[in-house]
Amino acid sequence: MTSRPQREYPRTAEDRFAQMEAARRELIATALELDAAKAATRPHPDRWSPAEVLYHLHQAEGRITRALTAALSTGERHEPKSDDDLRAEWDRVSGVLRDREVKFSAPAPLNPEGAPPVDESVRLLGESRGALLELLRAHQPADLASVSMPHPATAIGMVSVLGWLTIVAGHDDRHREQILESV
Predict the structure, then answer these.
(1) Which of 57, 61, 113, 118: disulfide with 39, CB 3.0–4.6 Å?
(2) Which range marks the domain in which residue 171 is found?
(3) Is residue 107 assigned to a domain?
(4) pLDDT tens digit string along 8-47?
């Protein structure tokens, strides 16, 4: 049984922003329900503690923001993806992220060594989300649909900037479920 909410196809960029924010609220609420000892404890030696999960998400969001900044600043654009293409991309990305049988390994820079306590990671998540939203809101939705960059996981592949909003929300959802499984 999954505790992850089934999200509907976001028809607009604002809908995608709303999904990112809903996923983040749910993640933080889940983490803040834990006492400090439980949040800092690894459920298994090769699995991250909830505090490490939050710190990993902060690190990943910072890396995504830097990559999207670079992609958007090149000036290179393709034809904006049509709604049908964006729907197909969303279906593909969402499906991969919802499938817990599909495993991902974080690259070394995103391993949460030295993770701070949950409350500090929540603060850091606010900073990284603020930077991401500032970048994205500085561009028109057509720009976000006309720039793409690859995800390191081949199962996800090439994704528009709008698709990266789905990845960010799905990443939060996926790790929220991981936290719920660990407690």
Answers:
(1) 118
(2) 13-99+115-182
(3) no
(4) 999 999 999 999 999 999 999 999 999 999 999 999 998 9
User: Within 10 Å of residue 1's Cβ, how many Cβ atoms?
Assistant: 2
Helix/strand/coil (H, E, C) string of the chain? CCCCCCCCCCCCHHHHHHHHHHHHHHHHHHHHCCCHHHHHCCCCCCCCCHHHHHHHHHHHHHHHHHHHHHHHHCCCCCCCCCHHHHHHHHHHHHHHHHCCCCCCCCCHHHCCCCCCCHHHHHHHHHHHHHHHHHHHHCCCHHHHHCCEEECCCCCCCEEEHHHHHHHHHHHHHHHHHHHHHHC
Residue corresponding to tokens 């000036």: 75
Q: What is the dihedral of CA 127, 18, 115, 109, to 10 degrees?
A: -90
176 in a structural domain: yes
pLDDT digits (tens, 9 = 90+) for 134-160: 999 999 999 999 999 999 988 899 999
Count up the domains in the chain and report the number.
Answer: 1
